[in-house]
Design goal:
alpha+beta; Yope Regulator, Chain: A; 6-stranded antiparallel β-sheet; 201 residues
Length: 201
């Protein structure tokens, strides 16, 4: 059932993306058309077209904020880093939603850490992250905090976010749920590796 739902959402996203970029291409072709016979008309229309573009550019960020409100998430805007910060099911996310792009980037940073001096656990983490990145759309990376003596784990996802997508609130919930699924899969893979090592010893 879950795989069917994901497949349907993927198809819906592809259709919406196709329609979005097709309409965008049609607008660009109209802009590049022969303007000589209609220079006065073009001069009159240009301000409206710029206004329309600006509305579209604002919509990505505003549309994402509206959707966060719909799923019951309170948010803050970090003006210094130009990011949106919100909590979902106890986890804090950072989002880059640029006015000029129909895509948003979601980050879940520092959701896990291990001690840098634990070489065996670090090796398991690396293997689990590699396996996860093969199987999931949410990408996982680690960073090394030498001062703190820790290895920190982070996740990232880039998703299309436009009004043409159906059931946008469910779409966002599903994508956020993928982060938690990745958390669980990495933890499970590390536990699997521990048991395999114990069995071999």
């Amino acid at each position: 059932m879950e795989k069917t739902l994901i497949l349907l959402l993927v198809v819906a996203i592809l259709v919406a993306a196709y329609n979005y970029f097709r309409d965008k291409s049609d607008e660009d072709e109209a802009d590049d058309g022969d303007a000589a016979p209609r220079s006065d008309m073009n001069n009159q229309q240009e301000p409206n077209m710029v206004g329309t573009d600006q509305t579209v550019k604002r919509n990505t960020r505003d549309f994402f904020l509206d959707t966060l409100t719909k799923i019951g998430c309170q948010y803050e805007i970090d003006e210094d880093n130009d990011t949106i910060i919100f909590a979902y099911q106890g986890e804090y996310f950072q989002v880059y939603a640029r006015d000029e792009s129909p895509f948003v980037t979601l980050y879940d940073t520092h959701w896990a850490h291990i001690e840098l001096c634990d070489i065996d656990e670090f090796a398991r983490l690396q293997k689990a992250i590699n396996q996860s990145n093969i199987n999931n759309s949410v990408i996982t990376v680690y960073t090394i905090d030498k001062a703190g003596g820790n290895v920190d784990v982070h996740c990232k996802s880039v998703v299309l976010f436009i009004p043409e997508l159906p059931s946008i609130a469910d779409y966002l919930r599903l994508e956020l749920g993928e982060f938690f699924r990745v958390h669980n899969s990495i933890s499970a893979e590390m536990e699997k590796l521990r048991k395999a090592e114990q069995a071999d010893s």
